[in-house]
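Tutorial, part two.
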Amino acid sequence: MQLSAALLKEQRKTTIMTASLTAGLDRIQDQIGYLVISEEGVLASAGELENDEVTAGVMMQMVRTASRFRLSGAVEPPFKRMSVILEDFVYMVTVSGQKVFVVKRQNNQQEPISV
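Running the prediction step on this input gives:
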C-alpha cells in the first residue's frame, strides 16, 4: 500500500514538472510539435516531435557547436535563440538555463513581392 502511494506521489510530481516545462508551447501559432531537452535527454515532447530522440540529438549538437563561438571577453552565452529554416517547416530553438526548447512550426514564408 505504501509503495502505491509513493508511486502516485511521484507521478503527480512528474506531471506538474512536465506541465511547467511545456507551459505555453501548445499555444504557439502553427506549431506542429515540440521538444524540451537537457543534457540528460528529452524531458518532454509532443506532436510530430514526440519521442523524437534523433531530432533532439541533432538540435543539441547544433546548440553545442554554436555555443563554442564566444566573442573574446564575453560573459553572456553567444546566443539565446536559433532558427533552422527549411522549405516546409522551421525549428525554433530557445536556450534557457540548462534546457533547450525546440518548436517545429509550419513555414508560412511568403515569396518576396516584385515591383
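The first strand starts at residue 31 and ends at 38. In part three we will examine how such features are distributed along the chain.
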